[in-house]
Design brief:
By secondary structure, this protein is α+β, with helices and mostly antiparallel strands. The protein has 8 helices and 21 strands. The chain has 3 domains: 7-70, 2-Layer Sandwich (Uridine Diphospho-n-acetylenolpyruvylglucosamine Reductase, domain 2); 77-195, Uridine Diphospho-n-acetylenolpyruvylglucosamine Reductase, domain 3; 212-312, Uridine Diphospho-n-acetylenolpyruvylglucosamine Reductase, domain 1, CATH 3.90.78.
C-alpha cells in the first residue's frame, strides 16, 4: 500500500446527523482528488465501497458497513466571477456565507439546508421552490474503478437531474462527486443575507432540530399520483415543489401519526415527516417507524410513500 491510511473499525455514528450506526471495516478521508484516486487503487477489488458526505440523509445500520467508507474532505470554495467552484465536501452553510460575502444570489432557498454540496448534487436537494439543478453549472467526479478511476466532467444537462434524483444517485455509488461549479447572479448582500436567514428561521420554528434527525424521511407526494379523493381532501395544502405536491407531513398528521414512538425513535409531533432520535434510537427503531408509516398511509389513503433517506449497510 502507498500513503493512504485506511482506518479499521471506524464508528460511523460519529459522522451521522442521526447519531446512529455501527462501525465500518475500513475508512479513509481523502483531502484531494489525487488521494481519492490513490485510495481506489489501493483498495482494489477487496469489497464494497460507500461514499459518505455530510451524513444528513443516511440511516446507517447498527451493524455498520462491511467494506470501505470513503469520506471526501474536499472543501475549498473559490469565487470566480459569478461562478462558485466548490469541493464536494464543503458544507452548504459555508457556501452560503461565501455567497453573501460575494454578493451572489441564487442559493437563498438553501438557507438552513444541512449537508454537503456533493450530497446536494447527488440528490438534487431542494426547498422553498428551488433545487440544486437550478444553479449547478458543472459537476465533476471520479469513477469507482480500481484499474482506471477515470475523472468525469458533466454539464448540467448531462446530470439527469430529477425530483430528488440525478445520474449520480442512479449510478448508485459507482462514482464519487469531487467538485460542483455553481452559477449564480449578482445581488445585494443584505437582501441575500435576509432571504437566507428567513429560510433558516422557518426551519428553526417548523423542524425538530432540537433532536438528532436526517431531514425529511419521505418525498412529498406528486399530486398526479394521488387518488382523486385524496387530491380533493388535501387541495388546501397543495404546494409547488417544484411541481404540484401534497406535503407528506399533512398525510401523516391526518393519520394521527404524530408522536408515535418505537424504542428511542419518534415521529416528530412538530413535523411528522421527521423521525427523530430521542437519545437511544437504533436503526431498527427508525426502520420500524418507516414501515409503520408506509403501511398506515397506504391503507388510509391508497398512497405509496417513497423514502428520501438512504439506507447503508443493511443486508437483505
Amino acid at each position: 500500500m502507498s500513503g493512504i491510511l485506511f482506518e479499521h473499525n471506524k464508528l460511523l455514528r460519529e459522522f451521522s446527523n442521526y447519531k446512529i450506526g455501527g462501525v465500518a471495516d475500513y475508512f479513509c478521508a481523502p483531502k484531494t482528488v489525487e488521494e481519492i484516486v490513490e485510495a481506489l487503487r489501493d483498495w482494489g477489488n477487496r469489497g464494497e465501497i460507500f461514499i459518505l458526505g455530510g451524513g444528513t440523509n443516511l440511516l446507517i445500520s447498527d451493524s455498520g458497513f462491511r467494506g470501505l467508507v470513503i469520506k471526501p474532505e474536499l472543501s475549498t470554495i473559490t469565487i470566480e466571477g459569478t461562478n462558485v467552484r466548490v469541493g464536494a465536501g464543503a458544507f452548504m452553510s459555508d457556501i452560503l456565507i461565501a455567497t453573501i460575502d460575494a454578493g451572489l444570489s441564487g442559493l437563498e432557498w438553501a438557507g438552513g439546508l444541512p449537508g454537503t454540496v456533493g450530497g446536494a448534487a447527488r440528490g438534487n436537494a431542494g426547498a422553498f421552490g428551488g433545487e440544486t439543478k437550478d444553479c449547478a453549472l458543472e459537476v465533476r467526479s471520479v469513477m469507482i474503478d480500481a484499474e482506471n478511476p477515470q475523472r468525469k466532467i458533466r454539464k448540467n444537462d448531462e446530470c439527469n437531474f430529477g425530483y430528488r434524483n440525478s445520474i449520480f444517485k442512479e449510478n448508485d455509488c459507482k462514482e464519487i462527486i469531487t467538485e460542483v461549479i455553481l452559477q449564480l447572479v449578482p445581488g445585494d448582500c443584505a437582501q441575500i443575507a435576509k432571504a437566507i436567514e428567513e429560510k433558516k428561521e422557518y426551519r428553526r420554528t417548523r423542524h425538530p432540530i432540537e433532536y438528532p434527525n436526517i431531514g425529511s424521511i419521505f418525498k412529498n407526494v406528486a399530486l398526479e399520483t394521488a387518488p382523486k379523493v385524496v387530491q380533493q381532501q388535501f387541495a388546501h395544502v397543495i404546494k409547488k415543489d417544484p411541481f404540484p405536491v401534497i406535503p407528506t407531513a399533512c398525510l401523516l398528521a391526518e393519520a394521527n401519526l404524530k408522536g408515535v414512538v418505537h424504542g428511542g425513535a419518534m415521529i416528530s409531533p412538530k413535523h411528522p415527516n421527521f423521525i427523530v432520535n430521542m437519545g437511544s434510537a437504533t436503526a431498527y427503531d427508525v426502520q420500524a417507524l418507516i414501515a409503520l408509516i408506509k403501511k398506515t398511509i397506504l391503507e388510509k389513503f391508497g398512497v405509496t410513500l417513497e423514502e428520501e433517506v438512504i439506507e447503508v449497510g443493511f443486508r437483505d
